[in-house]
Amino acid sequence: MTRKESDNLAQLIVEFYEKLSSWEHGVVRGTGLTPTQMHVIEILGAHQALRMKELAERMGVTTGTLTVVADKLEQRGLLRRRPNDQDRRSILVELTGAGQERFQEHDKLHADLTREIIADLSPEEAACLAACLGKINRVF
Asked: What is residue 92's predicted lDDT score, i.e. its pLDDT?
């Protein structure tokens, strides 16, 4: 790849990130949650119960930061903490029924966005996009 092609790709990645981030903030804004709180709901919705340390690692934050977010979600009835039967020293966090509903609502918005993004792609292009994103995600 030439320097010019690389620079163009970098600009496209930045532009896509900005658009996706703006979309995410826009859909979260109407929920009364912060983007970070919604991110917790997204992760727990996809992975069920996690130890606080695991959840913090997936989010790229400290357990102290996560504790503040989890406290607020717990106060809103969207998350609960429970003892870990496998390791009594740790606490698991999971979504409540209301939290699961929030996850499903938000996940539907993601599915709708995905359909919009791939609407003009051929099946081969959509498969290539999925493969490329999978490789990129493994790097991060």
From this structure: 92
Tell me if 58 sits within 8 A of 51, measured CB to CB: no
Q: 43, 78 in Cβ contact below 8 A?
A: no
Nearest to 69 by CA among 103, 28, 37, 30: 37
Q: Which domains does the chain have, with CATH numbers?
A: 31-139 (1.10.10.10)
Q: Are 91 and 84 in contact (CB under 8 A)?
A: yes
Determine the Cα–Cα distance for residues 109 and 87; give it in Å rounded to an integer. Answer: 36
Pairwise CA distance, residues 117 & 109, whole Å? 12
Phi, then psi, of 121 in degrees rounded to 5: -100, 145
Lowest-confidence segment of 27-31, 33-37, 50-54, 95-99 by average pLDDT: 27-31
Q: What is the pTM of this model?
A: 0.83
Q: What sign for the dihedral angle of Cα 118, 122, 128, 130?
A: positive
For residue 1, what is the DSSP state? -
With tokens 């989890």, the residue in question is 70
Distance from first CA to last CA of the chain, Å, rounded?
Answer: 21
